[in-house]
Amino acid sequence: QVHLVESGGGLVQPGGSLTLSCALSGGLDMIYDMGWYRQVPGKQRELVAAISSNGMTQYRDFAQGRFTLSRDNRDNAKNTVNLQMNSLKPEDTAVYYCASGLGSVFNSWGQGTQVTVSS
Fold first, then answer.
1. At residue 90, what are phi and psi to the nearest 5 degrees?
2. What's the rounded Cα separation, in Å, for the pair 89 and 16?
3. pLDDT the model gives residue 61
4. Percentage of residues in the chain with pLDDT exceeding 90?
């Protein structure tokens, strides 16, 4: 059973940076598609960025140019991804969730990590 562990959330001032990490364990001996979503109370969970098993990335418009999603390419950590978030805005405040799956279908989720952008 896949288990996702997220880290790196916290409080940051507007214009600051944070890096979220997500490590997958317990899955098949394969490289998983992985992504980050976010959710604020009263709204649907939305995709932030995703990376496929072959390294292709996609970003929502609000993340393009500010966020970078990358995969840890060490042999024993290929299912660890990092979301570098720069130039953060108050509207980026949300709970961020890591997701994983095979064949572009995300069916495993982390517990979520709070990101708060405030002065």
1. -55, -35
2. 8
3. 97
4. 88
